[in-house]
Amino acid sequence: MNNRIGAIDFAKGTLVLFMVIYHSLNYLGYDSIPHYCLLFVPPSFIMIAGFIITHVYVPRYGLTSRNIVSILILRSCKLVLLFTLLNIGAAVVFSSQQRGGAISLSNFIRGWIEIYIMGGSRWAAFEVLLPIGYLLFLAIPILRLQSLFPYGIGGISLATVAVCLTMEHNGYPVYNLYLISAGTLGMAIGFLPSHNMKVVSYPWVVLGSFYALYWFAFLLFGDQYMIQLLATLVSVLLIYAVGSRIDLGRWLPGQALVLGQYSLLAYIIQILYLQIFKHLPIYGVFELPGLVVVIISIMILTWGTVRSVHYAREKSDFFDDAYRMIFA
């Protein structure tokens, strides 16, 4: 934990809380303005993952070293396998409780092309894990290209965005590729020299104007790929800037910091809690006040689970090793 960058963990922890709100609105059928305001959340995790690859891994392990290749392959395989096992487990458990539901083993098997290639499938949960796993694997040839050409990562990022725009224009959107493009953009940003990262220290009025620009574009053009990518970039920038300026040693920011350190676990746990709630007999009876109670409850349960795991890791080497084997 000592080598982690606090502002990055704070950003990931804050995004976990936003993800709880986003998934709660989505799972409970509230297709409303607050839901659209949070469409930046899923690609934000992939963008930060790309940023970490070039801003943290490359300086630590080298651009094309065997260490970084091994780490990227291992973590990529872990995420794809974890995604598969979690969905199979969820299908077995929840389809037995609610026959004909979207999450079932038969739907998962039949829809594998839509799930593993296209993305955004209604037959799967934990969707963010898959494009992050793909990004980690694709980062290996991208880093190799960067070692040969000074602007290799920037070129790949622009090319990926151009492909996504073309596919959206022709009516063939690939959700997984949309998310991966956010990751390649994060890689390009993470590779910028340190003096070009000082945008986070700009006055709040300047950073706020970036967010106002996004909303102007959203109101003008609607929910399109480039608008979501702009929303992701601006939102991550603002959260990262907040984490860079506040005292992360205080209690409340410290809780976001811990959530960020366990963002993968927190992401999985909050979806599991929502799936459990969705299959309770009381599902669908709450109005807006009840929805707020659900969101707060999921946040508390997620935070409590993360704190319990953190405590158990400190007290047990066996538990710590088991956690690292699965999530590290």
What integer value in Å does the Rg equal?
20 Å
How many strand segments?
Answer: 0
Estimate the mean pLDDT confidence. Answer: 84
Beta content: under 5%
Main beta-sheet annotation: none
Number of domains: 2
Shape: globular
Pattern of helices and strands: HHHHHHHHHHHHHHH
SSE-based structural type: mainly alpha
| Unreliable residue stretches | 97-101
Alpha carbon gap, first and last residue:
12 Å
Notable traits:
single chain
Overview of this structure, please?
The protein is mainly alpha-helical. It contains 15 helices and no strands. The protein has helices spanning 6-27, 33-37, 41-61, 66-95, 105-110, 112-118, 129-148, 152-169, 175-190, 204-221, 225-245, 251-261, 263-278, 288-315, 317-327. Residues 97-101 have low confidence and may be disordered.
Short recap of the structure:
This protein has about 325 residues and is mainly α. It has helices spanning about 5-25, 35, 40-60, 65-95, 105-110, 110-120, 130-150, 150-170, 175-190, 205-220, 225-245, 250-260, 265-280, 290-315, 315-325. The termini are close together.
Write the layout of secondary structure elements.
Elements lengths: L5 H22 L5 H5 L3 H21 L4 H30 L9 H6 L1 H7 L10 H20 L3 H18 L5 H16 L13 H18 L3 H21 L5 H11 L1 H16 L9 H28 L1 H11 L1
